[in-house]
Amino acid sequence: MNRIAIAITILTIISPSHVALSFHRNPVSIQSTDNTISIELAVGDEMGGANIAVADLGNDGTDEILVGAGLGSEPRVRVLRQDGSEIGNFLAYAPNMGVGLNVVACDITGDGFKEIITAPQRGGGPHIRVFDRYGEPLYEGFFAYSESFRGGVNLACGDLVGDSGAELVTLPAPGGGPHVRIWSWENKMELQEEFFAFNEKDRAGVIGVVSDKKLFLAQQHTQTPSLKEIVIHSQVTTIDEEELDLDALGLYDIFVHKGEVYVTTTNGVIYNTKTNVSTFQETASGSVSAESNGETIYTVSSRFMFTPSTDPKKIIVDISQQRLYAFEYGVLSNTFLISSGLNGATPLGNHEVLAKIPEVHYAWSYGPGNPNNYDLGWIPYNLRIYPHIYIHYAPWHNNFGHTMSHGCINVALADIMWVYEWAEEGIPVIVQE
User: Fold this and answer.
1) Cβ atoms of residues 166 and 106 within 8 Å
2) Of 127, 179, 392, 397, which is the active-site residue?
3) Does 106 participate in catalysis according to the annotation?
4) Domain of 84: which CATH number?
5) Are residues 47 and 156 located together in one domain of the fold?
6) Active site residue 24
7) Angle at 267 (CA atoms; ends 209, 64), nearest 5 degrees
8) 298-322 residue pLDDT tens
């Protein structure tokens, strides 16, 4: 494989003096299905989404809305009032962990106040953290599964056994086996029970919710997910099971509203599993995170999840969105804004990573003394996808989300470092509009 290369063809050049620092994003908003809530969040975008929980943290009879940051944002939990004003926020993990958060709230310590529990979504390790209602950590947290697992962890919590504190349920997201673990508080979280909810070889991922001392579990990355109703007494017992036949690539969330189990799909449907009634919540990503406080259903756009692909790794560059998507076996691993070629200069079609080149010298001459000549020096992190066309770092501008180049696909530093490390030679790269 070539270690270095010199680019001597039509490539990107934008001088800093010509940069307009605007960004292409659809904001994330929290809605309620009864139209009483509409809150636009100041951070994130709809492809990265957010995750929400609703809980009365102050025991004053008024619920707060907890927002876990989505993919591409720093891992911050925000606590909002019903009118959208912010009560407070805190970092759950290191600021540079931008994989997205799952968040739940329940009284796991039995002190009468709800705690806030977080888990990284796909791309982060299974490090579960527990905070008090003010966002102060109760301890350093724990790893629910092997520290090397990067599929993400879904969460559920509630009283399963009738004691003073709620139980925490950890559930591997798509890519992990259906290994359900149940934890309770004994000055820290201690494992109390574990079992496989579905076939041990199943890698669809699991979502769950606790209600009325029952645990409801559903497969996630499948068009025909099984839904189980489980009780935990002297042993784990399945008391009901059904198969859902939904027109979607999978599920994102599960919740209980007025005693009935609902699931949300990756194409924006909120589905009542008892009445078979569906409602549609339009979002850019398709996926919806939802929560109920017993009276109101709250929704927010969640991260884009699935594509109908079985490739071990695949990159899709959408020119119309100015966005790159990275998938593993059809599950989204990352997405971020890019800048492609002006006037349709980036070649559409089915390509592949032809080479990973640590450094490329981007230079071009239009003739002696031509003011458009440039020499940008040696640029790190380059994925060649077409003769003389690269996915590469572009330190000369910060206008991602808009066409900027002469044909290459420009990427910000943190994003190119990620995709360069993740990509392998030979994986498909689809450029579409």
Assistant:
1) yes
2) 392
3) no
4) 2.120.10.30
5) yes
6) no
7) 45
8) 999 899 899 998 899 999 999 999 9
